[in-house]
Design goal:
Blueprint: H1 8-19, E1 28-29, H2 34-42, E2 48-50, H3 59-64, E3 89-99, E4 102-109, H4 110-119, E5 127-132, H5 134-140, E6 184-189, E7 194-198, E8 205-212, E9 215-220, E10 249-253, E11 258-261, E12 266-271, E13 275-282, H6 288-305, H7 307-317, H8 323-340, H9 344-356, H10 368-382, H11 387-390, H12 392-404
Parallel strand pairs: 1-2
Antiparallel strand pairs: 2-11, 3-4, 3-5, 5-6, 6-13, 7-12, 8-11, 8-13, 9-10, 9-12
């Protein structure tokens, strides 16, 4: 089988890149309690890493690494460990073919991609399996995600994904997210495949574990957003094209380490070995004000883009009885869901379900008074919006959230 590693030229490029990375300044923990996480990272919204001891016992770490890596070096991947999932149809990005703000994408059986990597790597060096819902697929087949990994305890207060359990779920419905989708992703791709500059869905937190290989991360706090936008206000695709790389916090993530990306932080990620990673988007009560603000901005963008529709509705219905407003907000909410992935109903349903059934043990949660404070902050702000009056179906859910937080 051809080597899955980089070419000689690619390795020289990678070595130059790695040599330019400064000494690590981000906190790195072997163990992190939820209290420490809350105090030092969730509330101040700052990044950190967990050491490889947090993933060393994962079944995936044993199944997907070829033994024999030297200390400080990454393992070669053992793609035989992925063959049991060859029937999964996965999203594949061709990172050699940029397309607008992403890459050319296709969907194909994982087995076909593995065949290309194993038999013709030179023709498949740009192929990157991204956003593969491996965990949801495993659960839908009646098995448990414990065959792959274990979510670190400090990261189990997760309002976007099903409550973590390593075992098979009793019913298929239990594997459905409390939101509308699954936000547990698996990525796999050769050296120099990458994810362009972006911010995570909903303005959520995220964490990423390198099961195999190493990555370089460029991190940008929200305060540096103006440094990574072009004159038209659009994000640059690749920060490596910018002077001083936009002033990023640049991090080399070693094999086995987990990196935590705060809410609203833009980032770009480059594989410098053949990498297989497990990633979660998540949020919880400390993030609610930021998630709420992100949704408000999303609604503003939608409204501005269809102001002509608003005028047509008013021309047709007039403004006397207020019926125009109901139709207008229904239209905006429908488009907001398509644009942002959810709308006000989806947001409040997610909050309600997580208050009704906590996703984690009590010792992994913020103190109840703090959680109530964050929930009531967004309730109070929402009640000042016109949607509070117009969207009756959402009002009932918000009232339920208030009762659950009293």
């Amino acid at each position: 089988m051809p080597s899955l590693g980089p070419t000689i030229e690619q390795r020289a490029h990678i070595d130059r890149l790695v040599s330019s990375i400064p000494d690590r300044t981000l906190p790195t923990y072997q163990h992190l309690t939820h209290d420490q996480l809350l105090r030092d990272h969730l509330i101040p919204n700052t990044p950190f890493l967990l050491t490889s001891s947090n993933t060393s016992q994962w079944p995936a770490a044993k199944a997907l690494r070829t033994p024999g890596a030297k200390t400080g070096e990454a393992s070669d991947p053992d793609l035989r460990g992925l063959r049991q999932y060859a029937h999964h149809v996965v999203p594949v990005a061709n990172t050699l073919k940029p397309q607008f703000s992403e890459f050319e994408r296709t969907e194909r059986p994982l087995g076909d991609v593995l065949d290309l990597w194993e038999n013709d790597i030179d023709a498949a060096r740009g192929l990157y399996v991204k956003d593969w819902h491996l965990m949801a697929e495993i659960e839908s087949e009646g098995r448990g995600v414990g065959e792959v990994y274990a979510v670190p305890e400090c990261l189990r207060d997760d309002w976007l994904n099903p409550p973590y359990t390593p075992s098979p779920r009793a019913t298929h419905s239990e594997s459905a997210s409390t939101s509308t989708s699954d936000f547990r992703f698996t990525y796999a791709g050769p050296a120099l495949t990458y994810t362009p500059l972006h911010r995570d869905v909903y303005g959520s937190y995220s964490w990423s574990a390198n099961v195999v290989g190493r990555k370089v991360w460029w991190l940008f706090s929200p305060e540096r957003l103006d440094k990574i936008k072009d004159p038209n206000g659009e994000l640059y695709f690749d920060v490596r094209d910018l002077e001083n790389e936009g002033g990023a916090i640049k991090v080399l993530q070693q094999e086995g380490e987990i990196i935590f990306v705060p809410s609203g932080w833009h980032h770009q990620v480059l594989n410098i070995d053949f990498c297989i990673s497990i990633n979660h988007n998540l949020f919880s009560s400390p993030t609610l004000p930021r998630i709420y603000a992100t949704l408000c901005l999303g609604q503003n963008r939608v409204e501005e883009s269809i102001l002509d529709v608003k005028e047509m509705i008013i021309d047709r219905l007039g403004t006397e009885d207020g019926s125009w407003e109901k139709e207008w907000f229904d239209e905006v909410q429908s488009l907001l869901e398509m644009d942002a992935g959810w709308n006000w109903k989806g947001f409040w349903v997610t909050v309600k379900k997580n208050l009704e059934m906590s996703p984690s043990l009590e010792h992994d949660l913020p103190p109840t008074p703090l959680q109530r404070e964050w929930v009531w902050e967004v309730i109070t702000q929402y009640k000042e919006r016109r949607e509070w009056v117009v969207l009756d179906n959402v009002k009932d859910i918000v009232l339920d959230v208030g009762r659950l937080s009293t």
